[in-house]
Amino acid sequence: MLALPGIASAESSAAPTAAPANDRAYWLQTLLKIVDPVLTAAARGQLKANMPIEAAAGQLEGRKAVSHLEALGRTLAGLAPWLEHSASSEAEKAQQQRYAVMARQAIALAVNPESPDFLNFNQGGQPLVDAAFLAHGLLRAPTQLWSQLPAAAQAQVVQALQSSRVIKPVYSNWLLFTAMVEAALLKLTGTGDVVRMDYAIKQHLAWYKGDGTYGDGPDFHWDYYNSYVIQPMLLDVVRTLVDAKKESPALLETLVARARRYAVVQERLIGPDGSFAAFGRSLAYRCGAFQLLGQMALQQQLPPELGAGQVRSALTAVIRRTMEPKGTFDAKGWLQIGLCGHQPSIGETYISTGSLYLCTVAFLPLGLPATDAFWTSPAADWTARKIWSGQDVKTDHAL
User: Fold this and answer.
1) What residues does the DUF2264 domain cover (predicted)?
2) Is 112 domain-assigned?
3) 192, 249, 267, 316: least surrounded by Cβ within 10 Å?
4) pLDDT tens sequence across 329-350
5) Do residues 233 and 186 lie in contact, with contact meaning Cβ atoms separated by under 8 Å?
6) What is the pTM of this model?
7) Is 15 inside any structural domain?
8) What is the CATH number of the domain that holds 181?
9) Closest of 327, 378, 366 to residue 96, by C-alpha
10) What gap in Å lies between CA 247 and CA 78, rounded to an integer?
11) What's the pLDDT at 12?
């Protein structure tokens, strides 16, 4: 492994195995189980050597060039809020420190041309996507994932992100990948391409279809991309611009109002047993389909009709339904393609092992302290459980 000044060597740490005492403990145990193989390998410069790559028939060779950045970028996009928050218990602080060290080591190795794990940020189209997820992780944890990197590693991160500019985005949610890269550069270095951000924002405003939902490009798609990408990135890009005094706070208020409505829709999509309608593409991202609902909880923007205990209970059910079935993980703890267990045919041609780590974005509320109402509120039935058990429920209305 390359010696990196300022970053301690990270040893493997097994995810906790004790029975969780509450929902928060269960969430954290599950998240660390997911990310541990990725970060343990990547922190040693062994991600390329150790990560198995599962892909659709005929796609394996093409995915080998991109799957490792997928795994790292998506892992950090979901893990970042937990790394960034101030834990109250000594045990959790120790876990945070361990995983933060591994994450920084992994980032530094990923952008160092002399590393065996130097990753692809600019060859083909896919690296733009995962440069953006890595950028989102940096934006969500600027202290832990950026400020504590050595200056040389920071410079190489900037070079890597900027190198993705050669990739022309698809005229769709991909515009937000270019915008997210620039937002992170703006936040972390003070300089980002405002034109790329503004173009992505304006196009998505034009693609708004009403009732809290955007088109994926000019057309509406029945899938979960409003949550996988569109609304979380749109919100955080605009918030970054507002903080830099380069965008109107009124625009952010409009986007938040729409996102709150979409959060209501998402909560109602969760069935009584934690399952949800399996329509659209990228179902192999599992519980990551509910990133937006989790982000609204993290950012204290849940609408009043969604109680904290209700949302936590609903998301816990989704996590259990998608992460516990047999076959979710292989014998060494790596994720396998599927929504409910190992279902290779659910993976599209662009899905490979690294892609699957977008499931981590369901865990964003772990960035809230254990004392927050999201964790301390009593468990409560969510809308589908109320309706299908015969409870009286208020009617739903469009925005």
Assistant:
1) 23-382
2) yes
3) 249
4) 999 999 999 999 999 999 999 9
5) no
6) 0.95
7) no
8) 1.50.10
9) 366
10) 26
11) 40
